[in-house]
Design a protein that fits this description.
single chain, alpha/beta
Length: about 190
């Protein structure tokens, strides 16, 4: 039986930041489960960088079904967690079930990959206090306010936490995360 990796996300998650790790981890041999506030079809978005804009633009992206609702997740069944970015973490951080799930992975020192706005979901419970993390650059002050150290990098590794700024960092981010998974939580 394949080891299971959980992706915690919701509507307005960045399409590439959900689907790239989803497919990469399947390719590696893991069972990948997508959790959301409710079991429904999610609407992802595409964030793009347009010359002349001060920030990213947002367009409708892929639709994808959530496998399970947060309330039905037993995090003990999973060897690792992925927290994609986009706007989803901005409202998911207010969901006690999402915070419960995230806290488990940090408390049990299980591998966690977070990208872009993903740290907004791990900051509220204090999981990043004293840790180094990347995030979308506009979140530097949020990271610092949460007691973490902001690093501007494509694959910031702090123990079993791997973080990155945004989807252009995917190769380094997933390479580092998969290396940790192979050692700490092999697929089979």
């Amino acid at each position: 039986m394949a080891a299971k990796v959980l992706i915690v996300t919701g509507d307005a998650a960045e399409s590439l930041e959900v689907l790239y790790p989803y497919q990469r981890l399947l390719e590696e041999g893991y069972e990948v489960v997508l959790a959301a506030p409710t079991k429904k079809t999610l609407q992802f978005v595409v964030h793009d960088f347009v010359p002349g804009f001060d920030t990213y633009t947002e367009k409708a992206g892929y639709c994808w079904p959530a496998d399970v609702a947060f309330a039905d997740v037993d995090p003990a069944e999973y060897v690792a967690l992925v927290i994609p970015g986009g706007r989803a973490p901005e409202y998911l951080r207010n969901d006690p079930e999402a915070r419960r799930i995230v806290a488990h992975f940090f408390e049990q020192d299980k591998p966690v990959a977070q990208i872009c706005h993903g740290p907004l979901l791990s900051l509220p419970g204090g999981a990043l206090a004293g840790r180094r993390t990347a995030a979308y650059p506009a979140l530097e002050l949020d990271v610092l306010a949460g007691g973490a150290v902001y690093e501007d990098g494509d694959a910031v590794v702090d123990g079993v936490l791997v973080s990155a700024r945004a989807w252009p960092d995917h190769p380094g981010w997933m390479r580092a995360f998969v290396e940790i998974l192979r050692k700490k939580a092999p697929a089979t």
